[in-house]
Every structure is written in C-alpha cells, then in structure tokens.
Amino acid sequence: CNVYEVEKDQRNRMKFYFNGCSFTWGGGLDTECGVDPYEHRWTKLVSDYFGAEETNHSERGGSNERVLRYLFAEDHDLGSYDCIFIQLTFPTRQEFWNTRRRKWAKFNPLFAIRKPQEYEKEFGPDCAAWSEYYLTDLYTDKYGMTKELIAYNSIVSHLKLLGKPFFMSTVSKYGHINYDYNFFTEKYDRISAKDKHASVKGHKQIADSIIHKVKDKL
User: Fold this and answer.
1) Which residues pair with 19 in a beta bridge?
2) What Å distances lie between residue 178 and 99, 156, 170, CA to CA?
C-alpha cells in the first residue's frame, strides 16, 4: 500500500484513552520483569487486539486527584477517543502543587512514613510526622470511601455526557462501587508475594478479561 493509504488507515483507527496509577502504567514490568512496559502492559494488549491507538496518561504512584485533574483541568479532548478506560487508585493518595519545584507532586502518606528521607526532600522535614498524623488521626474508611465515590461519580457522569463507551476499574479495597474490573479482587499472575503488580503473564490475563468485557461496549 502507498503512503496515502497508510495515513488514511491511521486516521481511521480507533483511539483508546487510559489513565490510572501503576496498575495501568505497567508497574514492575521494567524493574522486576526486565521488559518494556509500553510493549507488555495490558493497555497495549487491549489496544492491539482492537487495532486501536493507545494513549496512556497513567503514572506510577498517581492519585485519584491526578486522574480528575487530567480529565477536568488539563483540557484533554476526550471526545476524540472511541473508548475511555479510567482506573481509580487508593484514596489515601494525594497530589499537591509544589511551589518550590513549580510542578504537581505525588504524595502517598504510607510511603512518606516508610521513606521519610525521600519525601523530606520533596515536601520538607515535617512530612513523615504529618503523614502519620493524617493516617492515624484524620483518615478513616468513611472518609476514603466518600472521596472515592465522589471521584467515581464525577468521572462517570462526565463520560456519560460525552456519549462515549467507557470502562471503570480500581485497586481500592472498598467494595461499595460496582466497577467493571477490580485489580484488588481479580485473580491474575502477580510479580511476587511482595510486589502485587501483574507479571507479564498477568497482563495477558488482565487483557483477556478486559477484552471480553469491552466487546459489548464497542
């Protein structure tokens, strides 16, 4: 085929949008499995199956706040996508505008306690102490579940208005929302008992399951 036909084929390809945390980015594939996440993660496998172009804005350690920011404040044209895949993550995670570095900064209170020196460089010396206070005195399941429900309903309402097929997933332990897929409860091959991310085999299993569910939406 000629160049024109190739360009026409590219224009006519479906476009899939993905956003989430490391479970959608492909966490552990590079560091633990020694493979390229961009070639082996489930989002690539799902996109390839449908012959779609993959746009993946996921980020390791990302929060629900980050997903909401991308959808509602970063001016992404979601209307240009044929299917939208959103994965929500642990509601304890947050993000802030780091005035010193002039960028959005990921913040995970659990990691801040485990890695105080690393987070001290990012947020200051009181970071670990504040994180412990937040988790023990401020954060409750009621609080986390409500934050997650607000994020979920905001996203679903927005995507329904767009009139585009969408797929909602999560890693949250709470079972109060009926997601299309839950990485916390679904069974698939994981990297190790310590690292709960999907292995290369696990990403294939996840892709197969999601492909089966998405077929009815497209």
Assistant:
1) 86
2) 37, 12, 10
